[in-house]
Amino acid sequence: MMLRSMTTGELLDRTFFLYRTHFLLFVGIVALPYLAVLALQLAGFAIQTTFVSTIANSVLTGILYLLAMAASQAATVVTVSDVHLERPASIAGAYAKVKNLIPRVLFIMIAVWLGIAMGLLLLIVPGVIFALMWSLAIPVAVLENKGLSEAATRSRNLTKGSRGRIFVIYFLFIVLLYIITLAWEVPMLAVLGSTLYANKQVAPAWFSVVVTVMAFITTSLVAPLLTIALSLVYYDQRVRKEAFDLQLMMSSLETRPANSVAAGAP
Hints:
Layout: H1 8-21, H2 23-46, H3 51-84, H4 91-98, H5 102-121, H6 125-133, H7 137-144, H8 148-159, H9 163-198, H10 205-242, H11 244-254, H12 258-262
Helix pairs in contact: 1-10, 2-3, 2-10, 3-4, 3-5, 3-7, 3-10, 5-6, 5-7, 7-8, 9-10, 10-11
């Protein structure tokens, strides 16, 4: 693909194009680590536990959930980079590339969340600004191998002048998440709930299992989209600010075999 700057509409179109044409790849990348979270949750339902062990299970589930989120985001960023630049991509290959970066991504993710939370406490607006300013921190950390301070600074510089359209992207994907949730989770839960109410039953164990599995499916389907979009924004900002398209083209020319150049091969 020939890299070029894209409008907000083109970025969204490219996001859904990559998601649609590599659907199983992106959904598989997200689902893989979250399967461990799902297994731990289902194990908690299946085993009769005490209050203390229930709390312990909840804590372990929370930790595993954060690790799954960091791992899936890092692997998704790498995969977007590969498919966007027309390189081979696979689930195993993505996780092989990011396995050593997951602790760093987790640390950056939590640090950014805390910064945004502090900003939200200051009349909300600073938190929104921080979220936009640091929106590319994880793509920078993964693709440029940066730590927290460098990733945050680099994200702030890359997003400067384009935070309005990043806000639009965030808003649209939040709306999309709610639409998908309302479209299939809410009706199913309403049917289950009305059945239980009509029969005057207390919610059985299988009800919690169904809700948990539905949440897992929703996460697997929706979570890749925003990460794909932000990864594309990262490349688009580099094209706009650093002529990354020209850098990539020159790098490609420099690495072509000498005999191919001499023969005039494309």
